[in-house]
Design brief:
This protein has 113 residues and is mainly α. It has helices at residues 3-9, 21-47, 51-78, 82-110.
């Protein structure tokens, strides 16, 4: 060990102690990470929807799907050609599966458990 290193490790008085540069850098990085995490929490809290609006999403989707289904039924009822009615009915049935799945996923995400 050189004399400079020994001098750095020797206490010089009550207020002077050996400082480990790696420990200081580690502490500084942890402090910086904690500050960044706190900033992210604030951003998430500011952008999060209010609870009442968040819980309404599946019900708004259900109303939209109901109106959509009404117009599907009207257009099916207006059609006069049987072949077109059958094709349209098959398309509606297949389409209902996707719509029901989206409503189910929305409900399960909003009301887990």
């Amino acid at each position: 060990m050189s004399d400079g290193e020994l001098d750095a490790k020797r206490p010089r008085g009550d207020s002077e102690y050996f400082v480990d540069k790696k420990e200081v850098e580690l502490t500084r990085r942890k402090t910086e990470q904690n500050r960044l995490l706190e900033e992210r929490k604030v951003v998430v809290q500011q952008t999060k929807k209010p609870a009442c609006v968040e819980k309404m999403t599946p019900f708004i989707l259900m109303i939209g799907l109901g109106v959509h289904a009404t117009f599907e039924g009207l257009s099916l009822g207006i059609e006069k050609d049987f072949d077109k009615v059958m094709i349209f009915a098959i398309a509606i049935v297949l389409h209902k599966g996707a719509a029901g799945m989206s409503l189910g996923i929305s409900m399960s995400q909003t009301f887990p458990g």
